[in-house]
Amino acid sequence: xxxxxxxxxxxxxxxxxxxxxxxxxxxxxxxxxxxxxxxxxxxxxxxxxxxxxxxxxxxxxxxxxxxxxxxxxxxxxxxxxxxxxxxxxxxxxxxxxxxxxxxxxxxxxxxxxxxxxxxxxxxxxxxxxxxxxxxxxxxxxxxxxxxxxxxxxxxxxxxxxxxxxxxxxxxxxxxxxxxxxxxxxxxxxxxxxxxxxxxxxxxxxxxxxxxxxxxxxxxxxxxxxxxxxxxxxxxxxxxxxxxxxxxxxxxxxxxxxxxxxxxxxxxxxxxxxxxxxxxxxxxxxxxxxxxxxxxxxxxxxxxxxxxxxxxxxxxxxxxxxxxxxxxxx
Length: 329
Hints:
The chain is an alpha/beta fold. Helix content is about 55%, strand content about 10%. A five-stranded parallel beta sheet has the order 6-7-8-5-9, sandwiched between helices. The chain has a two-stranded antiparallel sheet with strand order 1-2. A two-stranded antiparallel sheet has the order 3-4. It starts with a helix and ends with a helix.
């Protein structure tokens, strides 16, 4: 199945590679013109290289009987001209590669492909574009696990329905799981549900996972439930009716859906969330959902089809403690 989101990001990355290639060629031409203008005598050596290249091309096309011997002579002449240029440059204080073409990426020489496969430089650009997408949509920047402070969680028991729990111990276990999840992430990873009151670190851990997963070269998108519904409405009720948002979010390697339950509940919003959750589950792509709602509140807000999909197929982690943002203030 065609991955629309990856294709869009890939095309943007290849456009950037093309721009880099054009910039490298421009810089090369500028250096060449600069040195030729300043040292006209160097032009003879450069012309020697050009002429030997033309000779070699002509010889290959004509294929005379003594081709091997002639080709060797031409190569020697070309090498001597190159050595003369290097010697001239270094004697006049220039680096020996001043007149060499300098691609941004030496592996693919700014073609985007290395030995027939997509080059690492393209993958790096794709990761950067994904980072921009997350930062653009999030009120937070990408987070790190090392910035997650367990000291904000009480080490005294919290009494819950089924007994008691110590928030700090609970969060230490959740943190450990998230680190391991990110370290071993692949598109077969389980989906996660982070449930708990506001300000307990659900978004922080989600974005910390995103940070690590992006560094592995996977595509990640972060979006709040409000943003999801607004974008879906723009698609569906716009001049050109489309399903672009759902198609895109259904295809990324990891989707982070934040603040589920904060959106205005309508039949349309419930349908959008169900379609997204259901499609990603059918494609066996992992999703991380953050919500302030417990299971009973989710059942009250959404139909059973939505909730059963999440509760049955997601690893559920409950967050306990006091609002960290208030504690910091």
